[in-house]
Design brief:
The chain starts with 6 loop residues before the first strand and ends with a strand. The protein is an alpha+beta fold. Among the domains are: about 260 residues, alpha-galactosidase from lactobacil brevis (Beta-galactosidase, Chain A, domain 5, Distorted Sandwich); about 100 residues, Immunoglobulin-like. The protein has 12 helices and 39 strands.
Length: about 675
């Protein structure tokens, strides 16, 4: 770095500095305790033509520093580098935020030389952490096993990564490390494909932290004049060990700057989805209309037609083989067509949702035969999906989604993806190279979602991928919510929610209450809403877990027992009038450790939502099977000098509690096993 580029900038709550001796430092200004400031860092790291290039490489020159486009409360700084031997221009982007210790960084590489250079690895963030004792945590991911926690002491190099082509199929793109049991740093790769986060120990006991695109099976031959844009990496710092100190920053910045907006999505509607009770075999237009009638009576606001609505009408065919042929409708089961169902839903004053796996191509799909230029291949064989890195694939996908929106008047599209693309498409006639097809696919997918939202801003886009196998901060910027998992038994749902909200706000998550899913041999599928042994306490427990985030049902509604129907109506009304405002706006705190789906770890789950100003709070407590009968929960932001009016939602119980008593902790001794309670606490004005 040359001396003319020496600068010192305060961006948000962070201090960034570089000087003529090629020292680059990034420091959080935390109550005067600058925890990471003394270590020189590379900021980014590239491998190009077999050589490592960083901001501190001897032949890397910082030409200038400029300000990029930014919104109020955000600072966007761009460092413009040239790597002299290759004549590559490297722009390092750094975004920071007022009142936050969160930063975003990414790299853009432009080839201004007259020859092609091969990019083999791109780390959008390369920091050197100071010496210390580090405890590291993250999550593995798989179908029905999303957000499975692991934690270990850092005693050797550690790599978090995914090679499946879906961001959370294998691991979730998230890591948090605590130094000396207090200072925390968290990193998340905002990318829906293959990614890597690496912690590598140096001889001087410092630790190199790098994060970005996974270099496995990746390369990009950057031709003269071409540009490569690397994924964004998000880094959050905190000055103590509470995981909420990290999670609340992810949630706050997500809400203010990342998550897209749409009127229907912002309204946090209660949804009904047909899938688990009926799947495709038991669904037809009569059944769907009957459920729409029942949903309307309950106060539900969105009715979604899931997979199984399309495909050939001939017996013996299965819609899964024909994904991509979205013009086909099974007229045996839907003789009036899909538009008639949408009109019926709209006539009831509700929104209409529809499922589509827009990226997928079934093995019998006519789309693949009729449009061979859209097909992703690997080593000459079809990869099962549409390559959105190709212009033909992008144009086909946009036209298909547009037709669903216009012809079927869809207000909500559930976008699924049920395959692992691995290293991605290696065709060289798609506008990408043999080694960067997956990266180009995801850039194309993001561009597609942006284009749909721009032209149809009222349409809600739901992110789903075999449940929760593609949850990341990249796709969270392009869809209105993430569906967390296919199964939804109570302990599983609580584990998911606890884990997902360490990187997403509650209103960026969707998961239904306990459903009638059809895995009859699954040991945890014990819910039968028509059982004579079902108790109100059990039903409340199942339902309130779903109310912690965006809320919905996938149950057969017309056959509900009268008391179950009435209780659902009460919970829906409570969600609409009270709970969803907290889900959308409040700061959420964890009152317990993460419960586990296997019955281990914490056997209580507690969450506290605190509205701005702390005048109102919502407390959600759950006693899981095996829990002790009594528990005291320490609360946040309680004014010991105040009195709080507390209402137990749907339980006809109110109580005035002094701030002194509430500050000492909320003591619970009357929950059934399992049991639940939602308590609205409002500061009394009397």
């Amino acid at each position: 770095m040359n001396a003319s580029a020496s600068t010192s900038l305060v961006t948000g709550s962070l201090h960034w500095a570089c000087d003529a001796r090629t020292h680059l430092q990034l420091s959080p200004l935390l109550h005067g305790d600058v925890m990471w400031a003394t270590v020189e860092s590379d900021l980014f790291a590239l491998e190009i033509d077999g050589q490592r290039i960083t901001a501190n490489s001897p032949n890397t020159v910082c030409r200038s520093v400029s300000e990029g486009a930014a919104r109020p409360g955000q600072r966007h700084v761009i460092l413009h580098f040239t790597h002299q031997p290759t004549q590559l221009h490297i722009d390092y982007h750094l975004c920071s935020y007022v009142d936050s210790y969160l930063i975003e960084s990414w790299v853009e590489v432009t080839n201004v030389s007259n020859r092609t250079h091969r990019i083999q690895r791109v780390d959008s963030l390369a920091l050197t952490l100071p010496s210390g004792s580090y405890e590291v945590m993250g999550y593995t991911g798989g179908w029905g096993r999303e957000f499975e926690p692991f934690q270990q002491h850092l005693i050797r190099d550690l790599v978090f990564e995914v090679r499946t082509g879906r961001s959370s199929q294998g691991m979730h793109p998230y890591m948090t490390a605590w130094r000396d049991q207090r200072a925390a740093i968290s990193v998340s790769v905002a990318w829906s494909g293959n990614w890597a986060i690496r912690l590598q120990q140096r001889a001087d006991t410092h630790i190199d932290l790098t994060a970005g695109l996974n270099d496995w099976a990746f390369f990009c031959d950057l031709t003269p004049g071409a540009q490569f844009c690397a994924p964004v990496v998000v880094c959050v710092m905190a000055d103590h060990s509470d995981i909420d100190a990290i999670a609340t920053q992810y949630a706050d910045i997500g809400r203010r700057f990342w998550y897209p907006r749409a009127p229907l999505a912002d309204a946090m509607p209660v949804e009904w989805n047909h899938w688990w009770t009926y799947e495709d075999k038991s669904l037809n237009e009569v059944v769907f209309r009957q459920n729409v009638d029942a949903a309307h009576a309950l106060g539900i606001e969105v009715c979604t037609l899931d997979a199984g609505w399309f495909g050939p009408s001939e017996p013996g065919t299965h819609w899964y083989d024909y994904r991509g042929d979205w013009h086909l409708v099974n007229t045996q089961r839907f003789p009036s067509g899909i538009r008639a169902l949408a009109d019926y839903v709209h006539a009831k004053g509700m929104a209409f949702g529809i499922w589509c796996e827009i990226e997928a191509l079934g093995k019998k799909s006519a789309a693949a035969r009729e449009h061979p230029d859209i097909v992703a291949t690997r080593h000459g064989a079809p990869a099962g999906y549409v390559c959105l890195g190709s212009q033909a694939g992008y144009a086909w996908a946009f036209a298909t989604l547009e037709r669903l929106i216009v012809e079927y008047r869809a207000d909500w599209i559930k976008l699924d993806f049920n395959l692992d693309p691995g290293a991605g498409c290696d065709r060289t006639d798609h506008g990408h190279g043999a080694g960067d097809g997956l990266a180009c696919h995801y850039h194309g997918y993001y561009r597609l979602l942006t284009a749909i939202r721009t032209k149809y801003p009222h349409v809600v886009l739901e992110n789903c991928s075999s449940g929760g196998l593609r949850i990341d901060l990249g796709i969270a910027r392009h869809t209105h919510m993430a569906f967390l998992s296919d199964p939804d038994w109570p302990e599983h749902s609580l584990q998911l929610f606890w884990g997902a909200t360490t990187m997403l706000a509650p209103d960026a998550c969707l998961h239904w209450g306990f459903c009638e899913w059809g895995f009859a041999d699954h040991p945890e599928q014990t819910f039968d809403p028509q059982s004579g042994t079902l108790t109100p306490a059990q039903l409340d427990y199942y339902t309130r877990i779903g109310m912690l985030r965006r809320f919905g049902f996938s149950q057969g509604l017309p056959t509900l027992l009268p008391w179950v129907r009435d209780r659902y109506a009460q919970h829906i009304a409570d969600y609409q009038t009270i709970v969803r405002e907290f889900v959308a706006c409040a700061t959420m705190h964890r009152l317990t450790n993460q419960p586990r789906r296997d019955g281990t770890l914490d056997r209580y789950a507690g969450f506290q939502y605190v509205m701005p100003g702390a005048e109102r709070m919502l407390i959600a407590l759950f006693r899981l099977p095996g829990a002790k009968p009594q528990r005291r929960f320490s609360l946040h932001d309680v004014d010991a000098t105040a009195t709080y009016h507390c209402t137990w939602l749907a339980d006809n119980r109110t109580l005035l509690i002094s701030g002194v008593d509430l500050h000492a902790g909320l003591f619970v001794s009357d929950l059934s096993e399992p049991g639940s309670v939602l308590i609205l606490c409002e500061r009394s004005t009397d």
